[in-house]
Amino acid sequence: MTFKELGLDESLLEGLDYMRFETATPIQEQAIPHILNNTDLLACAQTGTGKTAAFILPILHKLANRDSKSINTLIIAPTRELVLQIDQQIQAFAYFVNATSYPVYGGGDGQDFTEQKRAIQQGADIIVATPGKLISHLNMGYVKLDQLEHLILDEADRMLDMGFHDDIMRIVAKLPKKRQTLLFSATMPPKIRQLSKSLLGQYEEISLAISKPAEGVLQGAYLTYDTQKAQLIKKLIADKPKYKSIIIFTSTKKKIGEVVRAINRNGYEVMAVSSDLDQKERENALRLFRAKKVRVIVATDVLSRGIDIKDINLVINYDVPNDAEDYVHRIGRTARADTTGVALTLINPDDMYKFAKIEKLIEMEVMKIPLPPELGEGPTWSTKNSRGGRNHRGGNNRRGNFRKSNNRNKRTTSKR
Length: 416
What we know:
By secondary structure, the chain is α/β, with parallel strands linked by helices. An 8-stranded mixed sheet has the order 3-4-2-5-6-1-7-16, with helices on both faces. Strands 8, 9, 10, 11, 12, 13, 14 and 15 form an 8-stranded mixed sheet that branches. The protein folds into 2 domains: about 10-210, Rossmann fold (3-Layer(aba) Sandwich), CATH 3.40.50.300; about 215-405, P-loop containing nucleotide triphosphate hydrolases (Rossmann fold, 3-Layer(aba) Sandwich). It is about 35% helix and about 20% strand. Strand 10 (about 270-275), helix 12 and strand 11 form a beta-alpha-beta unit.
């Protein structure tokens, strides 16, 4: 379905045409009509499916001809990176629309706080905020939300994982009871359903491919000992000169330094991104990465959600994430918006059971690729000694193909 068929405002369509957006993704096609119809919504869709635009576009449609100085829409997101991403998308889509937005997040200086206060007091149409920083402004007494019409929670599952439930409820207590509430999540655990009962009235539910990688992701894994990982990383980068944007994920900040040092010794441009850096340092690293001035970013899971960088060619998991859901979010950084990409995971013996759980979650077996001969033999794939695991042998003797994700969109829409 095209955006024009969805009945969006002509000024908004002009902006979409300028950016060469014509056809809606499944989540956009299903969510936009409900939002235009002022229905509460619980929507679950994986990263990279266009869910941010699914709620931004209908809100901008409603704001296209609005002439008011009050805050109309509040979007709450878990991280500074996601807040900035959403605000940047609003700015892009609203180029021909008379609507204003402003990001509210922590980690800046006093000047940032002053500018945020000014935007809030002047009544930007859309405020995009992290929970903690918004509460800081609310405590100052100048945030007026009595005219608010839309509340949107993005990455709601992540916010609950980060312990923001009470903050969310404190914010909601300040909002008009009569409003449209949209809850977007990448997964649908029981706590999300509990939250929806607290926040939503009569609502529609949309679920698309829960916990499945995008179909364009070509997945592979190497069975390695930790002592082989640095050499393997260097060889993977050297063997793929056409890959200009590579993200390497580690599960700890300590390992970031190990990887950066290994890559630096080969003369590659590489930067680290972790919560140890201040906001300006993180933004600078991402800016250089987007501009292709830095080829490799090494990061913790702070980047697994909340960044929107197109054309990421390769995602490497230096180690297996502790949470199977995080694997989906990590590799979701590539193959966005109907493109293709490659995701490789380095698995040591201790991580085999964790990776077996990931394979169970995504309902596919990821092909195990032989190590380059010069690195020596790697471990054999086996979860025999792990609780509930199954026994696999053969490891690096398996054929070195990639396995393409074969998930299908799971589409259900039900009235609650």
